[in-house]
Every structure is written in structure tokens, then in C-alpha cells.
Amino acid sequence: MSAPTALITGGTSGIGKATAELLHRRGYQVVVTGQNPDTLAAAERSLPDQIVVLRADARSLADTDRVVDEVRERFGTLDVLFLNAGIVRGGPVEAFDEATYDDLFDVNVKGQFFTLQKALPLLNDGGSIIFTIGIGATRGVVGGSVSAASKGALLSLVPSLALELAPRRIRVNAVSPGPIETPIWAKGGLPPEALEEVAKVTTAQIPLGRFGTGEEVAEVVAFLASDAAGFVTGENIVVGGGSGIRA
């Protein structure tokens, strides 16, 4: 029996990379995608040689076609599709221009939807699809309106897809990280001193008193990918150290 195969979008850093490493250790054949040349090069250096690293811009359907063709040629089928690619842009409503708005929805919604659509013929019956959402989509983040809206649109796909794909026993779930130590924090456009202040304020609001790690989110993704979650579908699991539960 051949090893199960997983495709992870946005898998060259942060949560995606941690998940790729974990699934590899658990015997999966893994393909990751990314579009930043620096993180692609770093991933190729640091990830195990058996993990396939592919350049793909989530906004490009041609890139997605190329990735799916590569998976088909190398492995034939898929068992796990982890739709993790995403970007965050923060700011007040008046600060957003059309290009930034379009960028967020093109990467976070369009890119993930069409990756799923194009990869679906490769997905084995009984497979698992997992989206990365984030607690901002349901619990609110100051300055995060458009990013949260794009992730909220993605989250709204989950129950309908779970119903649609249930006849094939394909489970569709989401994982929503809270404050996690990943490079995405530095990509929000805030200067270092502002990031430090945000981290301090955020930590004070987390009941468990710290940021989470990419590895902790990866463990939840690996659970949702596994047979242990064989009766879990249409769900969104928050990994946030209790963020947002206070009255």
C-alpha cells in the first residue's frame, strides 16, 4: 500500500511548513507550494529532500493547473488537501484601496477555491480537505475588516462543501489559528516597535498567556487529516489558547 499524499498551499513557512514537516514524519508524501522566492529557497534548503517544493502564486489559475499536473504525474492521487495559502493586510477602512482589497480576495478566496476545484479529481474517496481561516473571521480584530471578510468568505464554504462531498466520504473542515508565532505577523505592514506593542497587548488577552506555535496548529491539521477524525466534517476548530472566550 502506497503512502498517503498531501498537498499544502502556502507550505514554505509558518503553519504550512510545520504541517509539511509533521506529515512527512508520519509517513506522508508531501507537496508544498509558495510564491516568495526567499521562503521558497529557504524551504528547499531546510525541508527534507523527499518533500516536493513548487513555486505557485495562489492568484494564478495557470500556476494551480501546473501544480495539480505535477502532483498527478508524481503521485497519481491525493489524500489530503491543506488550503493554507493566505495573506493579511491591516488598517482602518479608509486606508484600503481597490488593489489591496482585490489582492486579499484573490489570494484568500479565489486562489483556495480554484485549487480545491482543480485538485478535487485527484482526491481519493475518504480524503480530507482542510482550510486555514483564523479567529479574526468570527471574533473580530481591530483594523482587520477586509482580511477577516476574505477569510469569512472562505469559512462559509466549509459546511456546503462538507455536504456536497459527503457521498464520497471526503471530509471538509477548517482550522482557525489565534495568535501564533509565524512570519505572517511581520507581513502586516507594522513597524517593529508597533509589532512588539501588539504582541504585548495580545498576550495579555490570551488566557493561556502566550502565543501558540505553528507546530501546535500542525498537530490539529494532522488530526483532521487522519482517520482519527473520520467522523468530523463541516467543522472549524479554533487553536487560540482561549482567545475570545472571556465574557
Automatic annotation (TrEMBL):
Gene3D superfamilies: NAD(P)-binding Rossmann-like Domain. Keywords: Oxidoreductase. It holds the Pfam family adh_short_C2. The keyword Ion transport does not apply. Belongs to the short-chain dehydrogenases/reductases (SDR) family. PANTHER family: DIHYDROANTICAPSIN 7-DEHYDROGENASE. This is SDR family oxidoreductase. It comes from Actinoallomurus liliacearum.
